């Protein structure tokens, strides 16, 4: 097996770290989502996708601008994202978000006396006009009960309430594209 001399490896590491420090993503171009309070800086409606897709500059994820509040089972929600995506882009790669990804859309504040509160930030570009209050959206993340039962999955609503439902129950679908599956 070929091995770089120690000095060469340190040199290459230094080059990489130098590049990373100068790259926009590492030099303050992308901030952690908890530090971006200006919604107009964080979310961008993409015209290339017919205005139906929102780029979250903090995470690099593409979100369906108009999620569906339909009555989808968890399995049906997966199929909806895979085969329909955001409904207009005809692009592959859409999927249900992981619970962490859906949570990343929420702006976390310290306004809740019992702890942190989270909800979509005021002024967000998502079209939720057809969504009934309290509608929950599926995530791809199974909820594992103490007995290792995984018949439930994590859900969340735009007010930032997270919970779980049986995978056979009906909830809304909010598709995402990008990131790791």
Commentary on this structure:
By secondary structure, this protein is an alpha+beta fold. Helices cover 22% and strands 25% of the residues. It is built from four helices and twelve strands. The chain has helices spanning 6-22, 39-42, 74-84, 99-105; strands at 43-46, 53-56, 62-64, 68-72, 94-95, 107-109, 117-119, 137-143, 152-156, 162-166, 171-173, 176-177. The strands form four sheets. A five-stranded antiparallel β-sheet has the order 1-2-3-12-5. A three-stranded antiparallel β-sheet has the order 8-9-10, with helices on both faces. It has a two-stranded antiparallel ribbon with strand order 4-11. A hairpin with a 6-residue loop joins strand 1 (43-46) and strand 2. The longest helix is centred in the first third of the chain and has 17 residues, at 6-22. It is globular and about 45 Å long. The chain starts with 5 loop residues before the first helix and ends with a strand. The model is unreliable at 1-29 and 110-116 (pLDDT under 50).
Would you kindly provide a brief summary of this structure?
Helices cover 22% and strands 25% of the residues. It has helices at residues 6-22, 39-42, 74-84, 99-105, and strands at residues 43-46, 53-56, 62-64, 68-72, 94-95, 107-109, 117-119, 137-143, 152-156, 162-166, 171-173, 176-177. The longest helix is centred in the first third of the chain and has 17 residues, at 6-22.
């Amino acid at each position: 097996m070929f091995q770089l001399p120690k000095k060469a490896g340190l040199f290459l590491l230094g080059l990489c770290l130098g590049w990373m420090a100068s790259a926009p993503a590492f030099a303050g171009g992308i901030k952690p989502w908890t530090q971006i309070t200006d919604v107009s800086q964080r979310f961008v409606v993409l015209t290339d996708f017919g205005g139906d897709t929102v780029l979250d500059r903090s995470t690099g994820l593409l979100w369906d601008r108009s999620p569906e509040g339909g009555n989808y089972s968890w399995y049906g929600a997966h199929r909806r994202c895979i085969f329909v995506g955001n409904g207009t882009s005809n692009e592959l790669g859409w999927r249900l978000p992981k619970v962490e990804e859906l949570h990343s859309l929420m702006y976390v504040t310290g306004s809740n006396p019992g702890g942190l509160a989270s909800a979509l930030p005021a002024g967000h570009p998502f079209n939720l006009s057809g969504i009934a209050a309290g509608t929950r959206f599926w995530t791809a993340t199974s909820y594992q009960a103490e007995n290792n039962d995984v018949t439930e999955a994590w859900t969340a609503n735009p007010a930032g309430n997270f919970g779980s439902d049986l995978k056979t129950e009906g909830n809304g679908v909010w598709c995402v594209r990008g990131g790791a599956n």
